[in-house]
Design a protein that fits this description.
The complex is a heterodimer of chains A (397) and B (52). Helices cover 34% and strands 22% of the residues of chain A. By secondary structure, chain A is an alpha/beta fold. In chain A, helix 8 packs across helix 12. The longest helix of chain A is centred in the last third of the chain and has 17 residues. Chain B is built from no helices and three strands. In chain B, strand 1 and strand 2 form a beta hairpin. Chain B is an all-beta fold. A three-stranded antiparallel sheet of chain B has the order 2-1-3, with no helix packed on it. Classes of the chains: A alpha/beta (397), B mainly beta (52).
Chain lengths: 397, 52
């Protein structure tokens, strides 16, 4: 085994034994520009316990890191906080190599693991408030259904105040540093927001309820250890407050203008709309889809107050890149937005009507019916586009 | 009064309690909930529920 992979101690008895994926750029369609980590944690107690594993292809890295602390066959218990393959891909091989006496998951986790691996492995179910005795240490559990899967669960090491939060409070950053306080704060906030926008946003009402309930679990948190990105050992409130704010989605004076174009007509309309917004006090982000990824669009929307969408009509439909983004945005359910649509067309011009329908389904408050221009916008058409921008800006903060 | 569990996420609808937050009054039979109603926890439609 490659001895360059070492475990990193994060508290008296807990070691990070995960894997760093420097190269991943598409995380099921989410552009992970900085790569990511798959975090697994080893608790050295009378009953040695592994919390989560890694993506299947990173198994050897995890095994090497565990081996730098203890012989993996000494692991007594494995806990699966979340069934998604980036944390369980290596679980079957890990069970085979470690032969643990007990494997634990939430009630929905037990079912989901069965439907992933079609195995006869016995999984013991733990629910909120349940504890397991590691001899000299104690683990307790908090189910976090739909944060972000039905099976999601948090595990808490009582004696050391370490909360293992699976994907909650995670972010996609590959780094040699293991702690949040060692990473540029602006990068942390950006990648934390991007993760929230792409993975958690549509579950915001559940986040709010969960944060309200959190104090009732009486967790004296000293460390937050998520399954992606850095571990938090200082200013734990920082990441909790971020979640609270993102869940609230208070509208701002930022307008996001998303568009694509066939022959530059819709692009010219977008620039004119953007000018109208800027001239009337809005902060504007133009996102031409030739160079903007869907996951960056939703990230920009997380702290926006308006969404404006432009699409040409092609074969009676929305332009494919715009349709892709709208499909993605609709599922992530951004809230508290006003908006408008626009686009150039040649003869039938359905795209803008389709966009208006999608925006209504998304509960975006449309300031007017979508603005259409036939073929190439004339100067007066561009003036109408600037007026549209101005109208949206006037209804923003 | 019966109970129905969401197959996807395990959330339980109790006819006795209804679910006022999504507009379903206490005592509403599962079959009388509007067809466009979805699981308040995970968003699965009515056909994704089983009686428990």
């Amino acid at each position: 085994m490659d001895s360059s992979f070492r475990a990193v101690k994060i508290s008296d008895s807990v070691y990070w034994v995960g894997a760093i994926d420097w190269g991943v750029r598409s995380f099921h369609g989410y552009l992970t520009s900085r790569g990511t980590t798959y975090n697994a944690f080893l608790v050295i107690a009378d009953k040695v316990t592994l919390i989560d594993t890694v993506k299947a292809s990173f198994g050897e890295e995890m095994m090497a890191r565990i081996s730098s602390v203890i012989d993996p066959s000494k692991i007594d218990f494995i806990i699966s906080n979340h069934s998604e393959m980036d944390h369980t891909g290596y679980l079957p091989q890990a069970i085979q190599a470690m032969n643990p006496s007990r494997v634990f998951a939430s009630p929905m986790g037990q079912k989901a693991l069965g439907m992933h691996f079609h195995w006869d492995q016995e999984i013991e179910v733990v629910k909120t408030g349940d504890k397991i005795d590691l001899g000299n240490k104690t683990l307790s559990f908090v189910e976090a259904r739909m944060l972000h899967w039905p099976d999601s669960m948090l595990t808490y090491l009582e004696e050391e105040g370490v909360l293992f939060t699976n994907d909650v409070f995670g972010m996609h950053i590959a780094s040699s540093e293991r702690f949040a306080d060692e990473i540029d704060p602006s990068v942390l906030k950006y990648e934390g927001a991007k993760y929230y926008a792409n993975i958690i946003l549509h579950l915001s009402p559940i986040v709010t309820k969960f944060l309200e309930k959190l104090p009732s679990f009486n967790l004296d948190m000293k460390i937050i250890a998520p399954d992606h990105g850095p571990v938090w050992r200082r200013d734990l409130n920082q990441v909790v407050e971020w979640y609270s704010g993102w869940a609230e989605q208070k509208p701002t004076n930022k307008a996001v203008v998303v568009f694509d174009s066939m022959w530059e007509s819709t692009a010219r309309m977008a620039r004119a709309v953007g000018d109208g917004l800027t001239e009337n006090g809005a902060s504007v982000k133009l996102m031409p889809l030739g160079g903007s990824h869907r996951s960056d669009v939703i990230t920009e929307l997380l702290d926006a107050g308006a969404l404006l969408v432009g699409s040409p009509t092609i074969n009676n439909q929305i332009y494919p890149t715009v349709a892709d983004v709208m499909n993605y945005l609709k599922g992530l359910k951004p809230q508290n937005l006003i908006g408008a649509t626009f686009g150039s067309y040649g003869w039938s011009g359905e795209a803008v009507k389709h966009l208006d329908q999608i925006m209504q389904d998304m509960k975006v408050d449309l300031v007017q019916e979508g603005l259409r221009v036939k073929y190439v916008p004339a100067e007066e058409d561009l003036a109408t586009c600037r007026d549209l921008g101005a109208r949206v800006a006037s209804k923003m903060l | 009064m019966k109970k129905y569990e969401c197959d996807a996420c395990g959330w339980v609808y109790d006819e006795e309690k209804g679910h006022p937050a999504s507009g379903v009054k206490p005592g509403t039979k599962f079959e009388d909930i509007p067809e466009d109603w979805v699981c308040p926890l995970c968003g699965v439609g009515k056909d994704g529920f089983s009686e428990v």
